[in-house]
Structures are given as structure tokens and as C-alpha cells.
């Protein structure tokens, strides 16, 4: 066995990517699997954005760019932050990276160190924990109660902060729960955070995929937090551009300059052609996103209705954003399949793949092993068929 770097050896594959890969593998082998595992819109990238990429290629924008992104892209990002979030940034406070994932991994690596604790309210996106661990810091998971809509309360936050706390990562709308913080809730958290100098990271990648009102920004509600605040975002979800790999981080100059140094040594600029496409995404007409959200809204309603009819599934909170439902399946955990008890959300996911040929992601890696994540980034026809299959499969338990 080869000896790996200690932190890499401890690194688990991304649970969401593993579930999606397994579904793709089965489909390639001819098995009729419906995937509710995907973390990406099923829509195509809008034509105006593709056209911008073609033009960029035709005009020879095919060389390295500045490590932190084209000036025009950074300016477009500043325009977007003002227009969509009411936040003032200038280009020196922005880095463009290969997706929101690289942007957040960069800043987490730059700002946290061994001995530091980083608060992650759970259920949370699977990669936050891994990124914090890769930086050598310690994730401090704070479970947020389903009865409280999976939202962190100011009291929980106060109790989680220790002298070693260096950061907190918020994500609203949330992957995997679909929870969205309202202005009042953010203001409660901001009052606590304002008294500290810990880094407040706000991952906004699902900001436009909301169904019941909007997703307010914590730095707009409490501008004082910006001095120790970082925004993460990307074109992936809003513009159906997951494959293009463009995201960004915005924050204080020194933090961004460190991230540019890191990115300059370990990867370089995001694709020049994709950067041109992202400029068009941010500056062009913004109506396609709305159309996508209208469809997601109809699917959300369908999914909530169908999940609530499944024996052993509970979904007390209607997801208000993103494109996931996160039902509680604890009532299934005493049941047996092929003589073996279903032990946790991952076990339920395996059962659903085997018996219903429906792929979902177990809640374990989101820090919530009694849950499963079901993505509705697939057609209503597929969703209807998937729930018919799950209903039939559950009768076999
Ligand atoms: C909460 C959250 N943040 C960030 C990302 C990163 O997206 P990307 O790297 O495609 O911009 C994802 C993707 O699934 C996500 O769910």
C-alpha cells in the first residue's frame, strides 16, 4: 500500500458525486435507474451564454488570463453583487476560480489553520467538512433541529463559539435541506457574530432558486460583518452552468490576495472561455433563471406532496429553496430488507437503488444519518415515476 499524505488519506470521496456516479454506471450497464441524486439543474445553459463562449474562442481568448480572473469578469461579479445582494465590492476584493467549490476551498485553506475550529451548522453540504479538515482545522458541527426548520439559532451559535473558533460557514438556501434564513433570523445571528472577529462565510450558490420570497444576505443586514466576511458564489446553479466551472469568492483584499497566491501555485486561472461565458451570464438578460425557478417550484410542490404520502417518510418543513427535499426516514430504520436491518440514511439509499432503481443520497455525510436527500433537478415525469417506484418498493419492507 502506498503511503499517502495524512490528510489526503483521511479524505472520503464526495457522497453526492459517488451516488451520481453509481447511478450513471448502472444506467450505462442498461439498468433503468431514475436519478434523484444530481446536484445540478437538468436544464441546458442558455444560448446567449454559449454564444459568448463561441465568440471568445473565435476571438482567440484561449490563453492564460490573470490568475484571479479577467478584470471584466471581476467587474461583472461586482455588478452582480450590487444588483442581486446590495453589496459593494471592488475587483481587488474578488477572485474568480474553477467553480464555487474551488473558491471556497481556497479561502478556507488560506484563513484556517491547525488548532482552529470552524462552525458548520448541519445538515450541511458534504464538502465543507472536508475542506476544513484539509486546511488542518477542526470542523465543529452544530446540529440544527428539524423543528426549527434546520436553522441555526443565536443561542446555539453563542454556545458553539470557543476561544479557538475562527470561522462559521453559512449556506442559505441550504443544500441539502432547502432551508432559507429570513432577515430576522440572519439579524439574530449577525448580532452574535458582530461581537467576534471570526470569519463569516456565506455560500450563496442557490440564492436565486427560492420559492417563497427571497434569500436575504447577512452582510446586507449587518454590513459590519464584511470586514471579516467572505461571499462564495458561482454561475453553476443560477445559469445551469455546472460543467463550465466558474465561481468566485469576495472578501477583504488581503484574504483574496492570499487566495490568488494559492490558486496561482496550484491551478491557475479558471478557463478563459468559461470566464467569457460567465461575464455574459452576469451581465446579460436575467430572465432564463426565472423560468427555471418556475419549473423547480412546480416540482417542489409535487415532491412535497408525494414524499408526505410515503409510508415511513416525514417532511414537516416545506423546502423553501435549492432543489432538494430532505425527508426524515428514521421510521424505516427498524425495518429489514433481505434479512438485514436498514441502519441509516445510506442504508435506505442503497435499498432504494436496489429495489426501486431510484438513486438518492443518504444523509450520513451531510451530518444527518436519519435522512436522505432527494434532488428534484429532473423532469416531473421522472419524479412521478420515481415516487411510484419508491411507493412499491416500500411495500416490500
Ligand atoms: C452548497 C454548495 N456550495 C457550493 C457548491 C459548488 O458548486 P460549483 O463548484 O459548481 O460552483 C455546491 C455544489 O453542489 C453546493 O451545493
Question: Would you give an account of this structure?
Answer:
With 397 residues, the chain is an alpha/beta fold. It has two domains: 6-44 and 288-394, Aspartate Aminotransferase, domain 1; 47-283, 3-Layer(aba) Sandwich (Aspartate Aminotransferase, domain 2), CATH 3.40.640. Helix content is 42%, strand content 14%. The chain is built from 14 helices and 14 strands. The chain has helices at residues 6-9, 15-28, 47-58, 71-85, 99-111, 126-134, 154-160, 183-194, 218-221, 253-266, 272-283, 287-308, 345-356, 380-394, and strands at 34-35, 94-97, 117-122, 138-143, 165-171, 199-203, 229-234, 247-250, 324-325, 336-337, 340-341, 358-359, 361-362, 372-375. The strands form four sheets. The chain has a seven-stranded mixed beta sheet, with helices on both faces. Helix 4 (71-85) runs parallel beside helix 11, helix 5 packs parallel to helix 6 (126-134) and helix 5 (99-111) packs across helix 10 (253-266). The longest helix has 22 residues, at 287-308. The mean pLDDT is 96. Pyridoxal-5'-phosphate (PLP) is lined by residues 39, 99-101, 125, 171, 175, 203, 205, 234, 236, 242, 247.
Amino acid at each position: 500500500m502506498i503511503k499517502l499524505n495524512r490528510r489526503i488519506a483521511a479524505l472520503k470521496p464526495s457522497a453526492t458525486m459517488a451516488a451520481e456516479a453509481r447511478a450513471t454506471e448502472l444506467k450505462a450497464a442498461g439498468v433503468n435507474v431514475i436519478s434523484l441524486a444530481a446536484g445540478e439543474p437538468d436544464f441546458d445553459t442558455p444560448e446567449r451564454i454559449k454564444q459568448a463562449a463561441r465568440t471568445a474562442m473565435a476571438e482567440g481568448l484561449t490563453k492564460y488570463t490573470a490568475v484571479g480572473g479577467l478584470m471584466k469578469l471581476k467587474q461583472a461579479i461586482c455588478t452582480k453583487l450590487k444588483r442581486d445582494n446590495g453589496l459593494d465590492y471592488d475587483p481587488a476584493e474578488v477572485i474568480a476560480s474553477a467553480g464555487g467549490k474551488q473558491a471556497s476551498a481556497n479561502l478556507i485553506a488560506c484563513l484556517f489553520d491547525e488548532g482552529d475550529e470552524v462552525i458548520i451548522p448541519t445538515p450541511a453540504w458534504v464538502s465543507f467538512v472536508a475542506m476544513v479538515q484539509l486546511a488542518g482545522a477542526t470542523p465543529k458541527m452544530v446540529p440544527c433541529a428539524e423543528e426549527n426548520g434546520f436553522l441555526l439559532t443565536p443561542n446555539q451559535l453563542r454556545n458553539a463559539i470557543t476561544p479557538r473558533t475562527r470561522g462559521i460557514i453559512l449556506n442559505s438556501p441550504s443544500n441539502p435541506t432547502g432551508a432559507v434564513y429570513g432577515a430576522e433570523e440572519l439579524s439574530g445571528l449577525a448580532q452574535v457574530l458582530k461581537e467576534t472577529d471570526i470569519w463569516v462565510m456565506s455560500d450563496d450558490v442557490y440564492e436565486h432558486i427560492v420559492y417563497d420570497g427571497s434569500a436575504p444576505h447577512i452582510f446586507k443586514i449587518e454590513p459590519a460583518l464584511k470586514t471579516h466576511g467572505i461571499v462564495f458564489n458561482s454561475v453553476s446553479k443560477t445559469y445551469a452552468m455546472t460543467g463550465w466551472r466558474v465561481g468566485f469568492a469576495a472578501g477583504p483584499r488581503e484574504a483574496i490576495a492570499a487566495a490568488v497566491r494559492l490558486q496561482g501555485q496550484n491551478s491557475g486561472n479558471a478557463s478563459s472561455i468559461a470566464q467569457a461565458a460567465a461575464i455574459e451570464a452576469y451581465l446579460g438578460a436575467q430572465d432564463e433563471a426565472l423560468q427555471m425557478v418556475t419549473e423547480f417550484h412546480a416540482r417542489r410542490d409535487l415532491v412535497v406532496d408525494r414524499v408526505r404520502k410515503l409510508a415511513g417518510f416525514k417532511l414537516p418543513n416545506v423546502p423553501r429553496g435549492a432543489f432538494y427535499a430532505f425527508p426524515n426516514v428514521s421510521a424505516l430504520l427498524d425495518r429489514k430488507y433481505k434479512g438485514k436491518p436498514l441502519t441509516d440514511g445510506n442504508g435506505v439509499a442503497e435499498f432504494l437503488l436496489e429495489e426501486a432503481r431510484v438513486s438518492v443520497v443518504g444523509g450520513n455525510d451531510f451530518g444527518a444519518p436519519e435522512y436522505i436527500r432527494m434532488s428534484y433537478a429532473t423532469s416531473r415525469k421522472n419524479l412521478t415515476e420515481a415516487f411510484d417506484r419508491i411507493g412499491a418498493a416500500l411495500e416490500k419492507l
